[in-house]
Amino acid sequence: MSHAPENPGAAAPTPAEPAPGQGGLTRSLSHEQMTMIALGSALGTGLFLGSGAAIAIAGPAVIVSYAIGSLIAAIIASAAGEMAVRFPVRGGFGSMAARYLGPFGGFISRWSYWATTVLVAGAELVAVATYLKFWWPELPLWVGIVVFGAIVLGLNAFSVKSFGSVEFILSGIKVLAVIAFIIIGLIIVFFGLPSHPAEGLHRLTEGGGFLPNGPASIWLAMAVVMFSFGGIELVSISAAEAKDPVRSVRSAAKATVWRLSTFYVLSLFVVMCLMSSETLTQEEGLSSSPFVRVFSDVGIPAAAAVINFIVLVAALSAANANVYAGTRLMHSLSYEGMAPRRLRATTARGIPAGALAVSSLGILLVVVLALFTESVFQIMMSMITTLVLVVWGLILVSYISYRRRDGAADQFRLLGGSAMAGVGILGLVAVFVAVFSSATMVVPGLVAVAFFAVLVVVYFAAVRHHAQLDESAFQEAHDATGAVPTVAPPQRRR
Questions:
Q1: Separation between Cα atoms, residue 465 and residue 342, nearest integer Å
Q2: Mean pLDDT rounded to a whole number for the chain
Q3: What is the helix (H) or strand (E) element at residue 14, kind and residue range?
């Protein structure tokens, strides 16, 4: 369905899409690579390391928390995917927010998400450094962060095609590892191994039972659980560099939704069946991966080392994907007058080098924090959760406006449409309240809220009067697909 501009006479000609080296991105990602990029971002530290904190809150009932989180995440990923199928634009859902909610919505969503990706990249590198302590306990956190941070920046600085290839390999390793973990874990639970009897399901109800901390703990754990799903929206960001955007976004969105839901729920089921929540929530257990501890404590030390290597790769992959996402968001912001114009410049390989440099600030931040505290990961997780909840809320609000104006996409759509998006918003509000119900998350959460306040001030003081919709992005998406209709942007109020 195509709409003509409300004021055709005032419409400015759409600028040509710049070429690589002049600000343009290159469409070189296959649909397999896009799927793995999305999985690479979402399937990371939140599951492998952060799940320990969720277990401490809810015990075995954390399985229910992850099931609910999977449903909310599926709604968000499907909504972002439907919009990206129709408009595979640079800036992804941020550009959609600018089109359907106005420049302010685009500014807040993209700057918030940029901050999220920057912090997530840093948190993932903290996790990498933490996993290294499995082999080298005395190794300072900052050393691991610096070494692997340099590797991630190098991967992102070469070319998007190389980035996609490396991320495909890294994500493939951890996807296969998670599948193997689930299969082996289920065998140990129900059948046993020659050297290890079947564990059964008794640990799900022993001690304080399935709900040792009461039904409310399921909701409180959501404050930690939703951190695990950060990255589900990345398929929307990477759509602007897809060879075949419609096919790639459609397949990537579908795969991300069902694979993540299956991986998270079954993985936590295995963990809770093989180890008691009391053991997993001991202080030392929260500084290492529950996944590693499972195989170590059931008497398979070699497997523990292998799993530790895998979760290290998983964290490295997620850091890699988030640096990529932050770089593309900053590049998009520069086109709409919401970031310095110099950040739109790209190298001959199509890499936004200036945007990449700015998006490396998260790595610098965690290096500094690691010099003063070992609780870097918990601090970062709380800030990230607060930021990403707002981003996800804006995605769903943009989606509701999109469906109201333009109807559903033909190639891929969210089941239930706007009504299901409304359910997702209610879920996000509940999680937001849970964040500020946790004593350990309040202060970092307030820091994130202060960041939003700064964004609002900056927008109205310095950005409002020259922010503009990047029409060239939508024209480029139209040219790339040959079938995506162009839609008139909302008229700005003066």
A1: 19
A2: 78
A3: none
